[in-house]
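Budget justification aside, the reviewers requested a transparent look at the raw inputs and outputs of the sequence design task funded under Objective 1. We therefore reproduce one unedited record. The lines immediately below are the structure tokens for a 120-residue chain.
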């Protein structure tokens, strides 16, 4: 697979991951029944697994550097904050987790677009 094809797949998985995260948070926030459906709990994990695999693929093409380290730190931050946003028992903590996750997404977008490492 070419680098460009892998990069486009990666960007697609990023967009799907963020879209599903925001949608799931909204559904959970309004206590929508759709949030309890099996596919809503499974599909985001499949998308995020494909996202991680695409990152590994991209890292094969690109040597490990500060740029990759920033993306890895940002991804871990996004995942952890996303877990808080989805699993917290209070609205305040859930909302803070969501806001922090969006902050990590903004960090990742900045690093991806600017091609500048901010950490390290």
């Amino acid at each position: 697979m070419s680098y460009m094809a892998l990069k486009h797949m990666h960007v697609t998985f990023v967009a799907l991951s963020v879209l599903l995260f925001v949608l799931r948070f909204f559904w959970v926030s309004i206590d929508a029944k759709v949030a309890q459906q099996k596919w809503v709990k499974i599909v985001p994990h499949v998308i995020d697994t494909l996202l991680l695999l695409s990152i590994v693929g991209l890292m094969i093409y690109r040597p490990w550097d500060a740029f990759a380290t920033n993306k890895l730190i940002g991804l871990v931050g996004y995942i952890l904050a996303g877990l808080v946003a989805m699993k917290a028992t209070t609205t305040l903590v859930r909302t803070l987790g969501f806001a922090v996750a969006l902050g990590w997404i903004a960090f990742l977008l900045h690093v991806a677009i600017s091609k500048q490492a901010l950490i390290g």
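The chain has a mean pLDDT of 90. The two ends are 31 Å apart (CA to CA). Computational costs for records of this kind are itemized in the attached budget.
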